Amino acid sequence: MLINRANIENAFTGFKVSFDKGFGSAQSTYEKVAMIVPSSASSEIYRWLGQIPKMREWLGDRILNNLEAHSFSIENRKFENTIRVRREDFEDDQYGILSPLFQELGQAAAEHPNELVYDLLKSGFTTKCYDGQYFFDPDHATLDENGNVISVANTDGGSGEPWFLLDGSRAIKPIIFQDRIKPRLTRLDQENDENVFFRDEYIYGVRARSNAGFGLWQLAWGSKRPLDNSRYAAARASMMSLRGDNGRLLGVKPTVLVVGPSLEEAARELIMSQTRANGASNPWHDSLDLLVTPWLG
């Protein structure tokens, strides 16, 4: 191929088509467990964390909920992915070889939020959230109906492969995905660009800004104990009986079980099988959705 501006432009147009194809074909599931928040600054402050609004009987003056009680900031991070294309590849018309590479570049960009969200979920046993406790912790503080501070757990501990019950039915979700700048394909392919002049290569890259942070721990249960009927039942019961400040029932109901590849068989047997090994009916059949993700592997 003759190297001129028109042909370079045509090549980039083709690369972008491949990039967009890969981006659109990626399998993303993070939206099921994370609330997507558009960001317009270097960081965002979430003052409403800790609040699950509940109606109350109006007796006397209104009771004002204090949005400053729990403040949590998520700072955006910057990410990139860059590839180099030799000038000889253009001269020798190697588009068939290069197109899959740009398609993979697009798929990686689209899948990146999965990595952020599920990596954060895995770290919840050792990473603090807005109340100063680990996201999955046996000692989250709340108030009982008499105003006394009590401890509430959203984990039963363990040391094995993690599994998670999440309530993804609400506007607020257990995880926050903060989206500042969406992935975009850019280039250095001008004849006077340093990389072209000195190294005879064209550079293409993706840039994005985003981050993930913890939302409401009340909507999540994390366990590293074996995934079986008794522990699943106990986790569901604990989530559904959870009460907020002043003893108000929160109405939490798990909607999705999240596991990695190593627990897929146990999870499918637990909630997708209609009968148990002894032939009895399975009370947990179709009790929620199953999400198996490689990002927990």
Automatic annotation (TrEMBL):
Start and end residues of each Bacteriophage Mu GpT domain: 9-296
Domain of life: Bacteria
Classification via InterPro entries: Phage_Mu_GpT (IPR018774)
Protein name (Swiss-Prot/TrEMBL): Phage major head subunit gpT-like protein
Organism of origin: Allorhizobium taibaishanense
